[in-house]
């Protein structure tokens, strides 16, 4: 039986208030797990490049993505992730205030694993984030970082 590894999460969201709420809501979950943030697609790609060049840093094995990004279209970012073998199997949760059918369909077409609407109400927002945290940190198993293509 394999041991459960900590989850290295990358939150990509330009809204600093939403990021703060996300981090606050995940506080109990981040004791054993690491959460990093990026405010744009370009910043997220730079973060990944730094992980690749520094053996002491791990690439994220879970991404939470808002699709309302500056500098780079979110679909382009997902395409870059999809083209990089290091992202094979890494779950992407789209967590956004956008509720257009086209965006939902495009998210799944670009291999997102879930599309979750950000609630407008602060308490409901926190509840949704805690539910996501429980699922991804306690229930689901994300791909191991040391063997990204392990088929066992």
TrEMBL record:
<dbReference type="InterPro" id="IPR011006">
    <property type="entry name" value="CheY-like_superfamily"/>
</dbReference>
<feature type="modified residue" description="4-aspartylphosphate">
    <location>
        <position position="66"/>
    </location>
</feature>
<feature type="domain" description="Response regulatory">
    <location>
        <begin position="8"/>
        <end position="133"/>
    </location>
</feature>
<protein>
    <submittedName>
        <fullName>Response regulator receiver</fullName>
    </submittedName>
</protein>
<keyword id="KW-0597">Phosphoprotein</keyword>
<dbReference type="InterPro" id="IPR052893">
    <property type="entry name" value="TCS_response_regulator"/>
</dbReference>
<dbReference type="GO" id="GO:0000160">
    <property type="term" value="P:phosphorelay signal transduction system"/>
</dbReference>
<dbReference type="Pfam" id="PF00072">
    <property type="entry name" value="Response_reg"/>
</dbReference>
<dbReference type="InterPro" id="IPR001789">
    <property type="entry name" value="Sig_transdc_resp-reg_receiver"/>
</dbReference>
């Amino acid at each position: 039986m394999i041991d459960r590894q900590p989850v290295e999460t990358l939150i990509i969201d330009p809204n600093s208030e939403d990021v703060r709420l996300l981090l606050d809501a995940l506080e109990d979950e981040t004791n054993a797990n690491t959460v990093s943030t990026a405010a744009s697609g370009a910043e997220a790609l730079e973060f990944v490049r730094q992980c690749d060049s520094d053996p002491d840093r791990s690439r994220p094995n879970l991404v939470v993505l808002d699709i309302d990004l500056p500098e780079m279209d979110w679909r382009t970012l997902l395409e870059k992730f999809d083209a990089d073998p290091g992202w094979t199997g890494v779950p992407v949760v789209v967590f956004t205030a956008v509720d257009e059918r086209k965006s939902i369909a495009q998210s799944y077409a670009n291999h997102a694993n879930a599309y979750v609407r950000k609630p407008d109400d602060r308490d409901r927002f926190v509840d949704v984030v805690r539910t996501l945290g429980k699922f991804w940190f306690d229930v689901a198993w994300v791909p191991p970082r040391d063997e990204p293509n392990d088929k066992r």
